Amino acid sequence: MSDGCNSDGIAHIQWINTIFGSCISDNQEAFSVILGYLTLVCWLNAQLPQLITNYRNKSVEGLSLPFLLNWLLGDITNFLGGILTDQLKFQIYLAAYFCIVDFILFFQYFYYTWYQISTIVEPGEDIPVRPLSTQSFKDSILEGARKSYTFPTRKNQSHQRLSSMVFAVLLFTFHSTSSISSSFSTSPSYLSTAHDDEMSFSGHAKLFFERNSESIGRILAWICTVLYLTSRMPQIWKNYTRRSVEGLSIFMFIFAALGNLSYSTSIFINPSLGTDPKYLRKEVPYILGSIGTLAFDVTILIQWCIFRDPEHRHRKRRSRHSVSYGSDNIGYYQLPTTDDESYSRRSGQIDGGNFV
């Protein structure tokens, strides 16, 4: 047994403690922990395929700008919250990684949309901008919001993350960055200072949010749930209006869907579900957020199956307009386009080929 586990006489699973540093005593809880880390792996790799796709195509026409903006704001809030509440360095580093990837996506978006076009045109030349490029960028600005994902933590860590987001809002509201960034103390000496007449306004604000963190966390959790449920809509609408998913990496949504699926499953198989009556009630916002987002991920996967090859669908439509002649044997010819110089209206013959 590792020194990190309590010496309570319960046999813990050694390999999980060695790899993950968690003290797990039964297989059900172990499976829940493994799913949690699987969620983490999926979300770590979710955005990388889109970065590669943008670089290869030298274009971001398939992405919705509000989709990226919502993603970035959510990750910045998570990062600031982790700093303000003095969470584990691993969590802060992970949130910083998400922010860095988001900024790279934004850099690609504006580089391939504006900068690259302006630099490839010589002075005096017309700007060779395709109508689709300008229109898709205009449409992306007018569209809605995007999915922001949650960090896959256990029950108490999820509540800490929600509280951290509250303090991030407090940072911008009360303009007290330095005072809020300090670690909150729950010692009696701190509580006694709350009644001091000379206590600063920021101190009163800290005390208020500390005492009401659970209620505020629930409210914020439901707000986040609404954002999760509506986050994919801009990208879904963009795909629908374009009748195309060109430029969109489907692996980004596959990884996100797998992450949401494993996260939801880890909640349902957690042993606390059967022992803590309040567990499920506290986890309802996260369950709805992850399962609801998963439904929209599936919608995008369906769109990808329908819109992924517009040229192939165009060929199939043209093949339906074939002509057939003959009584015994029926042959098919695809009608040529009107600008085909070899097209001849001679009876029974097209391009020298006889109907059969």
TrEMBL record:
Region (Disordered): 336-356
Topology relative to the membrane: Multi-pass membrane protein
Transmembrane segments: 67-84, 90-112, 245-264, 284-307
GO MF terms held by the record: basic amino acid transmembrane transporter activity
A Pfam family the protein falls into: PQ-loop
Alphabetized InterPro entries for the sequence: LAAT-1, PQ-loop_rpt
GO annotation, cellular component aspect: lytic vacuole membrane
Subcellular location: Membrane
BP-aspect Gene Ontology terms: basic amino acid transmembrane export from vacuole
Gene3D superfamilies per record: 1.20.1280.290
Coiled-coil region(s): none
Keywords recorded for this protein, A-Z: Membrane, Transmembrane, Transmembrane helix
Protein name per the record: Vacuolar integral membrane protein YDR352W
